[in-house]
Amino acid sequence: MAIALQARVVFPVDRPPIEHGVVTIEGERIVAVSTKAEAGDVIDLGSVALLPGLVNCHTHLEFSDLRRPLGTPGMRLVDWIRLVIAERGRRDYAPEVAIENGMQESLGYGVTSIGDITTVEMPAPYFPCVDLTLFTEVIAFSLARIVSALVAVQGRLLIQQNRNSYAGRATGDIHFGISPHSPYTVSSGLLRGLVALARERELPVAMHVAESREELELMDSGSGPFRALLEERSMWDDDAISRGRRPLYYLNLLAEAPRALVIHGNYLDDEELQFLGANHERMWLVYCPRTHAYFRHPTYPLAAALTSGVRVALGTDSRASNPDLDLFAEMRHVAKAFPSIEPHTVLRMGTLTGAEALGRDAELGSITPGKLANLVAMPLDEDAPTSANELLNSLFANDAMPSAVWLRGVKV
């Protein structure tokens, strides 16, 4: 049976906004987007903006039980990582529960698709409440650990895929990827092996790159706070990093993957942004706005990235560096920090571009006939401006929560 949802304005994202639009749903999928119902009863949602379900391209859901971010604003990333390691070592640490809670929290914020970096195996059978891409995190810096790390990640992928190789899920869906953690935790030899594995299995790759100045120092000179951290943990290998490297070196390796998500990229220079732009068909930059602000990094190179043709998606990172998992708050942060960027561009970062980065854009990210009916209704003031673009600006200027969320055609 078809249902038709009428809204003050519909933002399909892949086409211009539709004022007084109607989205017709049959089963799990969108069948029509227009100004009239194609079939079924019309449900008038009132003064709302109807958007595609939001896509959070990067988070670590295992920290979703934290009540506040770790550490203090402006602290060095390397010192914050020490706190993360201690958090994982807590006796009562229960990541599986935190992951479930994080997905439920995300859904309440209108996030219906997540790219999650995971260090834990999912229980079987496992029914996520969102569309989930699990990136298996890999940390192994020394050259001696390359073979064992590759064997381990293949084993984890096999277990995950076997546990979830059935159809007919009633809620979300699960897909898989690989996450070489960073240049200071994964040697270039291991990164090559992981990219080759991803290419063999057609999996996306996500890697933290150019996240801090200390990371750049390690790549350039093999010294600094990250070397000290690795030595503390008996992980340092003097041969794992050749001196004089830049983020561009790692971008070149990642470009061989079927699709690559470059996480953070806070300190990418113009040449590196141009490289991402030239390889935009298989590389995405994932910006985590409020986490970037938490560490008080310099202004994010967002304008330069967009000018270079880089496809930029958004993430919340985790509750270890963010007060919540509200992706719309990330979009609001971008709209406020970069007023010259068109609001529709910001909306696309949190929807369709994120779906493209995860390889899910055939099903998600826009309100398009044939795609899954993942939708979010955001309330609008009755006296809000009348044009669609002004309405989007007003959404970014307030702090309203979703009034309704649909996942695969079901109001949740």
Report on the structure:
About 1% of the residues have low confidence. The two termini are 18 Å apart. α3 packs parallel to α4 and α11 packs across α14. The protein has two domains: 95 residues, Roll (Urease, subunit C, domain 1), CATH 2.30.40; 304 residues, TIM Barrel. Strands 3-2-7-16-17-18 form a six-stranded mixed β-sheet, covered by helices on one side. Helix content is 33%, strand content 21%. The protein has 412 residues and is α/β, with parallel strands linked by helices. It has 14 helices and 18 strands. The radius of gyration is 21 Å and the shape is globular.
Task: Set out the fold topology.
Elements (H helix, E strand, L loop, with lengths): L1 E5 L2 E2 L7 E2 L2 E5 L2 E6 L6 E4 L3 E5 L1 E6 L17 H12 L6 H14 L2 E8 L12 E8 L7 H18 L9 E8 L7 H14 L3 E5 L3 H9 L3 H8 L14 H8 L5 E5 L5 H9 L4 E5 L1 H6 L7 H6 L4 E3 L12 H11 L5 H7 L2 H6 L17 E5 L8 H10 L6 E4 L2 E2 L1
Parallel strand pairs: 1-6, 2-7, 8-9, 9-10, 10-11, 12-13, 13-14, 14-15
Antiparallel strand pairs: 1-4, 2-3, 4-5, 7-16, 16-17, 17-18
